[in-house]
Design goal:
- The protein contains 18 helices and 14 strands.
- By secondary structure, it is of the alpha/beta class.
- A hairpin with a 2-residue loop joins strand 10 and strand 11.
- Helix 2 packs across helix 4 and helix 13 crosses helix 18.
């Protein structure tokens, strides 16, 4: 049994040299006892110099890159695992390509964890200025508690980023110092580092860039775990900003600009026309819609729901927005309201495949409630942002008659939903001169609690659809 004790500083180079010697002598993985920092204590270990042989050692670039991450992991078995895979690579040169192999899978997972910890260190180290007698260079110090032994491999990042100042990063494992060159020494306990004058400025900046409308606490904590908060001056502001986020978001919405002024209309029309020219085919249209970021609704929706039907249809039915079923299927009017709609089409003698069916808003807006997603009405800005897509569909289909199903569709097509129930069953003209028939949305019928009223409204809705067919 051979005992190999690797130093805290220079761990990778030491492991690489020891592994090369042992492998060249044909030493099996089970005959090596690895330790880190202190000599291994084992009754059967051999403290003699490591054997060296003349066998060639094969190590691919991919393995070296993986090893240079895994050796910094905190798992005490990391060196043995690495050597075991290196030993196996001498017989199977394609072993690393088999990610189903549990040995390779484990190393890949460890490498990923080290990479993530290095990223956290570069993101969450906070330097504070300290006095530096006898030098013209400014000096800074920081305390950090990494999950793995990553101070040494991460120090070059700080040397490159902060090469114009002297700095010290103290961790429990290793202390890194820079005064033109990087040196390492043993880790230390947390030093007493006072706040400096820049921290108030940093807190002011952090508060100013904090967007209360985008608060997602779980996502934030996944990227910025609480274990780092105590070393970050801005972290003290987070609880208060989260608590007031809803009120601040409402205030921002109230102060947000409304629709563009009239003098901007010609400019917007020209820009929209140029964009529309690039979306002539259905594939181009669908691809562009998938990338729509005109309003925040895309963030939580499963997918946008485009209209469907022939591009020479004489009737275009415009609904409000996708529902839960439509959001999942990617097709309009496939949920409960779609069943009511389909029955009305059938009674009116309309073949659904011969008409164009779409929505004024293309993404599902909802409020999570346990496992359910409760429908929410789109607001004025969301309707306005999505109107560009509806206008493009109307321009491509050129229907003889538009049918507005509900208030959202009516607002999108005419600019107002006022007096919807008084206007239903009547013909109007859109601002661009297209013929429009007003009616309710099928979901309105489904929400009526009175069965008799529901029956009456269903008959009226069927009459409205029949009127569209005759027209």
């Amino acid at each position: 049994m051979h005992s190999v004790s690797l130093p805290i500083i220079g761990t990778f180079d030491a492991w690489r040299d020891a592994a090369r010697d042992l492998l060249s002598a044909g030493t099996a993985p089970e005959d090596i006892l690895w330790s880190h920092g202190t000599a291994a204590q084992d009754l059967f270990s051999d403290a003699a110099p490591l054997p060296r042989g003349d066998r060639p050692v094969i190590a691919s670039k991919a393995f070296i890159q993986m090893a240079n991450l895994v050796v910094w992991h905190s798992d005490p078995e990391r060196f043995a695992r690495l050597y075991g895979v290196l030993h196996a690579l001498q017989r199977d040169k394609r072993l690393l390509e088999d990610r189903a192999d549990p040995r390779v899978e484990k190393l890949a997972k460890m490498a990923k964890e080290v990479s993530r910890d290095k990223h956290k260190m570069t993101a969450f180290v906070r330097f504070r200025e300290i006095s530096a007698p006898g030098t013209n260079r400014r000096a800074f110090a920081a305390w950090f508690e990494p999950s793995h032994y990553i101070t040494e491999p991460t120090a070059p990042f700080f040397a490159k980023r902060f090469g114009d100042m002297d700095w010290t990063i103290v961790t429990p494992h290793v202390t890194a110092q820079f005064d033109g060159t990087v040196t390492f020494s043993e880790g230390r306990e947390r030093p007493d580092i006072s706040d400096d004058a820049t921290e108030d400025l940093w807190r002011t900046y952090f508060r100013s860039i904090f967007n209360p409308a985008r608060v997602k606490v779980k996502a934030m904590q996944a990227e910025m775990p609480k274990k780092y908060w105590k070393n970050m001056p801005e972290a003290a502001l987070i609880p208060e900003m989260i608590a007031t986020a809803q009120a601040r978001a409402a205030e921002m919405a109230a102060k947000a600009p409304t629709l563009a002024p009239a003098r901007a209309a010609p400019i917007l029309d020209r820009l929209h026309a140029e964009q529309a020219e690039r979306l002539q085919t259905q594939d181009q249209f669908l691809t562009a819609l998938q990338g729509c970021r005109r309003c925040p609704l895309w963030e939580n929706a499963t997918q946008p729901v485009p209209g469907e039907g022939p591009l020479d249809a004489r009737l275009m039915f415009v609904g409000e927005q996708p529902g839960d079923t439509e959001d999942l299927t990617g097709r309009p009017f496939t949920g409960p309201a779609g069943q009511v709609f389909d029955r009305a089409l059938s009674d009116a003698g309309i073949d659904r495949s011969g008409v164009y069916i779409t929505n004024a808003v293309k993404h599902f807006k909802f409020q999570p409630r346990g496992k359910r997603r409760l429908h929410q009405n789109p607001d004025r800005d969301e309707i306005h942002h999505c109107k560009w897509w509806l206008d493009l569909e109307i321009e491509r289909v050129k229907p003889r008659l538009l049918i507005a199903l509900g208030g959202t569709a009516l607002e999108s097509l005419t600019g107002t939903r006022k007096d919807l129930l008084k206007r239903r069953g009547q013909f109007e003209e859109t601002p661009d001169g297209r013929q429009l028939l007003v009616t309710v949305h099928p979901s309105y019928i489904l929400r009526l609690p009175d069965p008799a009223l529901r029956t009456e409204e269903t008959a009226r809705f069927h009459a409205d659809v029949a009127l569209a067919a005759r027209a």
